[in-house]
Amino acid sequence: MRPGRKNCQQRQSVPARRYSCRWRCYNVRPKTNLNARMDTYLEFAGNHPLLAGALVFSFFVLVFTELQRKARGLINVEPQDAVKLINADAVVIDLRSPEAFARGHIVNAKNLPFEDLPANKDKITKYAKKAIVAVCDAGVTSNKVVDSLRKSGIENVFGLKGGINAWTQANLPLVTGKKTKKKG
User: Fold this and answer.
1) What is the pTM of this model?
2) Which terminus of the chain faces fewer neighbouring Cβ atoms within 10 Å, N or C?
3) pLDDT in tens, 128-151
4) Count helices and strands in the chain by DSSP H and E runs
């Protein structure tokens, strides 16, 4: 007798039943044919409907989010990828307030506050031939701006994933609001 059967026989409450242990215990290896395995899965799902429902729900959530992400295309970039874009002559648009911009911003960033963005769309469209990286505090506002700019026809626009917070956590440099005077 296999160890799995011994465990299963100890759990039998009514010894007069003639069913095989294979059909009532999950720790016993199922029969080799597909129908027997499918019956075991269906029995498990019948005995544990919440677990089976949670599995099916999580599967559909995973599929939905992946399809949604695939349909949107690449919107957010990590700070390291943003550095590569900036080195390849991308324009950085900082969507934060002028006070937050003065506390620290990415080198050569242009400050266009989110509230003033509809009035400044013409400034953004002149950079349409270059890559544009939108930056905000946590990455939420930049997602909205990236979506609206892509809908308006500018395709080469990205948001900084995590915003300026992710930039500082990656120990990348910020320029403070202090202006330096040029000599000469």
Assistant:
1) 0.58
2) C
3) 888 899 999 888 888 888 888 888
4) 8, 5
